[in-house]
Amino acid sequence: xxxxxxxxxxxxxxxxxxxxxxxxxxxxxxxxxxxxxxxxxxxxxxxxxxxxxxxxxxxxxxxxxxxxxxxxxxxxxxxxxxxxxxxxxxxxxxxxxxxxxxxxxxxxxxxxxxxxxxxxxxxxxxxxxxxxxxxxxxxxxxxxxxxxxxxxxxxxxxxxxxxxxxxxxxxxxxxxxxxxxxxxxxxxxxxxxxxxxxxxxxxxxxxxxxxxxxxxxxxxxxxxxxxxxxxxxxxxxxxxxxxxxxxxxxxxxxxxxxxxxxxxxxxxxxxxxxxxxxxxxxxxxxxxxxxxxxxxxxxxxxxxxxxxxxxxxxxxxxxxxxxxxxxxxxxxxxxxxxxxxxxxxxxxxxxxxxxxxxxxxxxxxxxxxxxxxxxxxxxxxxxxxxxxxxxxxxxxxxxxxxxxxxxxxxxxxxxxxxxxxxxxxxxxxxxxxxxxxxxxxxxxxxxxxxxxxxxxxxxxxxxxxxxxxxxxxxxxxxxxxxxxxxxxxxxxxxxxxxxxxxxxxxxxxxxxxxxxxxxxxxxxxxxxxxxxxxxxxxxxxxxxxxxxxxxxxxxxxxxxxxxxxxxxxxxxxxxxxxxxxxxxxxx
Length: 587
Hints:
By secondary structure, this protein is of the alpha/beta class. It contains 13 helices and 35 strands.
């Protein structure tokens, strides 16, 4: 279960050469009032690319910069690579190496530490299956966090990646390293070398030979890193991003789809990639928005930002020597359009957070293909570029170059325009052409209630705002929804049941409509500050009277559009921690 702040927008890149460059990005993003919660630091911050160090010249005053971001309600995630510099000539005292040797936690081959190469040069590789590696990793992270108070960790290069083939001295000639079948390795010629750009297959971990545990390496590191953060930031839910994963990793980490290219093809490919990882049990997933490698065009980055605002994990990240692609680096029109998409994401975060609660407790998907909700509709079987958040929110992005519209398919039922509340489609399956109106197309499925919240520039500020509901009745005039709410940061709130879980139900007939809540779990005293402030009722006849818990709602708080049949209520101030009943009486 991710912390709430991690559902906000993340900014990252390889190539922040100095702390001043990072500051420039944060300052222009703040000035543009673009919603943004998390700033990443790639290996540029390190001293000679060594874990648990920072460059005190290029990144002078890094600890103060991190503290300043915290004061603004933002978080910092730093990268760590699973390769510890082994070249003692670089520095006489390097605790990450010295303590690792003393605890004997590095992977071995033929009785000695396997030495390869990575960003710092020569390197040893921690064995994350070793019983001593957790106290080692915790000690290193604890000491480093005394100076740089990071909030999350990004574990990269953890396939494990090795710039050498196997080791600096090669690998033994045996059937593990040279199996009797061709191995498909990226960039290889199928010559049978399994150790290309990784470790020798006969190297030894505590859990077994590398041949047997290679695919588990990142899982072991994810487990160790997650538990390390739970120790060093006590009481807080860990945030770990991992490049490599294995089935079960979703319990510990979020995931990116890898170092993609800034192309339209890879924009489109990101959607099925994200849907697949939800099936793998890793729902907190996203692609590098606007692409990692190559210089992105403004049009492509705009479409990607609009789509990426609806990735479960939303991060803009690019490569060394590529031009800036953070939203505030573009012009005013671009900034306005991207801000709309991100503010919409932030408004929908209570719904997204509830979906993550269900994924955590029931194993359901957060982002899902249409065929999962409509398995008998054969048209949905071939839809790759539309997707759903949970069962209720349909996302239909524009993913073609120079396009000003998208042909979107609507399965059977009623579908409502999220922005206008009006019925977009009613009846059997239908493909409609949706025009570009300056925002990504979102539609709510009839029969559902979406919890919302007025958005702000950070999740911490958003959580202080009024909450809302979007009520989208089905053909029978009914709708249901769920809200999960806690403090957003505490560790294992589900396991300890220290949260609020609210069932929402809407029913109507020709004389009356009722919206009511039922609190199924109410063990979150701090929820008293959270309140419903605005409601949107779709496909609604204008009522003659509205009552909340028996008290009449003043007409000045109501607005009705007869053309769209949308009823809006504002400034109603209903506590979510208390059960309520809203009644509408019709003329």
